């Protein structure tokens, strides 16, 4: 009757179909490709009408009233059974997070805040939902709000997303006009309002407490935790901050059952997921696939393979710029889910797959990422404000070939002084690209090798990514100019 998933005891449905779905989850060995009838986002590419009329034809808002009438506990249990984990990067169990709001009321209103401030380099999944399937998000706000007892949702949209915010606002207006939200939403007797808030382009406002500060009209700087937003959030009230994709899949989970959603992927890594594939691939795309699909199959099936063939692959950033690069030797077998990428010393993050072939200057790429984090730092924490600036200067010296050998160990130590010593995770995101190990034997840091060979390389002979390619003997050694 119960099964332990994500350290939570869950009440499982008793229907044979639900038990069959769970049996498949526990004993599956092959993951993907996802069949069309199992896709949640059916207008991802904007080929159909995104307005209310088109959304109703695709099954949105179907039996939403029944879902609301089943109440908070039923919705929370379905989400817990589904195994849904946050799709914004952290991967925290969604049912548990939403359950933190399900406490006796102390008189303060509760709020749902949707984090649509998508600014992670390489990530472009949430904007596709807001642009082409906004009613899924609006309906998801209603269902998620009901689960946590909130009566209002704020959708905080990145400032650059003009079309996305426009479409979302139109969808909200249509839902109000149809009686789907507002007073007596869907005829359920539950009142629920949805508001759009435009950001101003700051990457740091993607951090939940900085987002709350911005929503309140203050500078977007992260807060110290505790207190957590579930206790003191926006306007001093209990708040849950959730990602766009996380919220948008909630109605489908409630309609089709948590066990149906849990039948995809592995235990602790269940469901479907939106993946962005960019970089050196033949057909960059955004695609919905089953969790735990092998990385190589994902790239070959949906992105037309690596430019120049799989043997031309150098490495992959698997989850947006905040996640460490994984080398070709790992890419052959790794699965795209939370646990397997942690095993590979990286992370799923936002599932933004950035592919790099052997023409990539990895040192320049890392320097560019560090420069981004330096520019987007809010400056509140000294390790991030000062340390990332120093890392940026040192990385560009490595790019130019002007650095001393001693700076290799120095920048590693500097990154360790930043990691884990800041209020939010921006400092960690800046430090991780610098710490990545690309060589197949794990013995050297990438700055020790100029992968393009235009100025300097050290040591003289090195095996790149374990593929047997030996660096040419004619190199310019760092610092002494000898060939």
Describe this structure in words.
The protein has 483 residues and is α/β, with parallel strands linked by helices. The chain has 3 domains: 39-262, Rossmann fold; 265-357, Roll (Ubiquitin-like (UB roll)), CATH 3.10.20; 362-448, de novo design (two linked rop proteins). It has 19 helices and 13 strands. The strands form 4 sheets. The chain has a 5-stranded mixed β-sheet with strand order 10-9-13-11-12. A 4-stranded parallel β-sheet has the order 5-4-3-6, sandwiched between helices. It is globular. The N and C termini lie far apart (71 Å). The relative contact order is 0.11. Residues 1-10, 438-445 and 447-483 have low confidence and may be disordered. Pfam families: Complex1_51K, NADH_4Fe-4S, SLBB_2. It is found in: Mitochondrion inner membrane. It is an enzyme of class 7 (translocase).
Task: Give short descriptive properties of this protein.
483 residues, Rossmann fold, Ubiquitin-like (UB roll), de novo design (two linked rop proteins), 3 domains, 4-stranded parallel β-sheet, 13 strands
Mean pLDDT: 86
Total tally of structural domains: 3
- DSSP strand tally: 13
Runs with pLDDT <50, length 5+? Answer: 1-10, 438-445, 447-483
Radius of gyration of CA atoms, rounded to a whole number? 23 Å
Structural class: alpha/beta
- What portion of residues belong to β-strands? 5-15%
CATH superfamily of the largest domain: NADH-ubiquinone oxidoreductase 51kDa subunit
Shape: globular
Fold-level CATH name of the largest domain: Rossmann fold
How many individual helices? 19
The second-level CATH architecture of the largest domain is 3-Layer(aba) Sandwich
Q: Summarize the biggest pleated sheet.
A: 5 strands, mixed
